[in-house]
Amino acid sequence: MRKTPRKTAREPRRARRPVVAAAFPSLTETELSLLDGIRERLAGRAEVLVLTGGYEGVLRQLAGMGELAGVVGDFVSDTWLRSLCAQGVKAVQLAHCSRMETVVNIAPDFAAMGRDAARVLRANGVRAFAFAGVPGQYASRELGEGFAAALGGPVTSATVATLAQMREFLHSQPRPLGLLAASDRVARLAVQAARELRWGVPGDVAVIGVGNARLESLYAGVSLSSFELPSRELGRQAAAALLAALEGGRGQGADAPRPVGVLHERESSLRYPSGLERALSYARGNIDQPLQVGDLCRVAGMSRRSLEMAMQSALGTSPLAYLQALRSERARTLLRTTRTGIRVVAQACGYAEPSVFSSAFRRWTGLSPSEYRKAN
């Protein structure tokens, strides 16, 4: 008797993950960090397609074919975004160049960075303040507004694109001047223009930029004080907002607190670089490194005993306690305002091992990092 072949159950087809595009003008350090955050948040949830340069035509083509579910980028036109969204594509704006009305905007708190820059420059003893912006850029406008608000009134400002424009702008300003630049490129132009005017940096003009671009410091010939943008966290927030949009609502990325960039104080803004101030600035700008008290002594050019006495007299604390306070504050800020993983938070505070960081954090607060995040 012939046996009838047994029918086997057909395995269900695996659901295809949606395709999401990350669209950038170019892949700089900032964009790569944004991309890391986007990929981290979308891992296992969507396929990420990276587009650079002239990506508009590719996005339209993918949308027309029904192949594109969502897009994250820094776009310049609400009209263009509306035409893309009309084809069923969900979008999130990384609001650096422009802020959109059509979609959710994700951006750091540029106004808070402006306020922080005002505080630092004022503490450095400058007598006048100025802002050098980027034409038509949302981030530049918000940064300048925060800077002026912290200083209690209008601030002399100009949009600067060339070295000649920067030289003319600086020439009209009183000295000593505290200058906030909307980007490290603009900050580098300020240093170059000051050199042509035979101004000292930071003696005649103390400069702070935005972006923490190491190449710009090399081009400037001076270590630029600069805000490091929280790009990875912004990428995570943008991806979370996009996932929520794909699921039909607003989500945690859209409602999360706006993170603030970390200011790295370096040579271009330190007008009174005593040994103690060099050590304090180095600590603030390099707290993501495994700093020890000996590193601060080396930067200050002081013995351990001399540094301890100077810090005790000026701040009422020891070098070790100062480092721990900086790490504790950085950790608590990241845990409160971001959803960055504990390992990344540990690295941002100078700890290679999350377990060592967690033990230190419990000593500081009485809670583990996870417990602190949940409570706050």
CATH architecture of the largest domain: 3-Layer(aba) Sandwich
Low-confidence stretches: none
DSSP summary, beta strand count: 11
Number of helices: 17
Order of helices and strands: EHEHEHEEHEHEHEHEHEHHEHHHHHHH
The third-level CATH topology of the largest domain is Rossmann fold
Distance between the termini: 73 Å
Largest sheet, spatial ordering of strands: 7-6-8-9-10-11
As a percent range, the share of helical residues equals 40-55%
Q: Strand content of the residues, in percent? A: 5-15%
Radius of gyration: 24 Å
Helices and strands: which structural class?
Answer: alpha/beta
What is the level 1 CATH name of the largest domain?
Alpha Beta
The coarse silhouette is globular
| Mean of residue pLDDT values | 89
CATH superfamily of the largest domain: Response regulator
